[in-house]
Amino acid sequence: MGFSLLPHRRPRPPGSRPELVRKDEKMRTLQVLRSRVRAGWRQRQASLHQERAQTVAEYGLVMSVVAVGVVVPTLLIFSDRLSNAFLGVSGCLVGSC
After folding, report:
1. Alpha-carbon distances of 20 from 6, 12, 15, 26, 35, rounded to whole Å
2. Is residue 13 part of a domain?
3. pTM, whole model, 2 decimals?
4. Does residue 5 form part of some domain?
5. Which of 17, 41, 58, 97 could in theory staple to 92 by disulfide, Cβ–Cβ 3.0 to 4.6 A?
6. pLDDT classification of 3: cutoffs 50, 70, 90
């Protein structure tokens, strides 16, 4: 059984005027289509929101890995120079510059 956007036709009541029934059927069809489009739109919006949140989380994770990958080796390579710089600054704060 396939999916159809259009509703199934209902049998016409006996004694009814065909032009009114057709107009009612058209209105019903438009209402069904509108509700299905709105439901699809809401579902797509929710999906986009979820994708954006996932993208932000992945971006944050990548940035943290890059930061650790850059900061840790930099501190290891320049540890002696950084230590000497901090000792010089602390000496100047004490007053022995």
Report:
1. 19, 10, 11, 10, 22
2. no
3. 0.39
4. no
5. 97
6. low
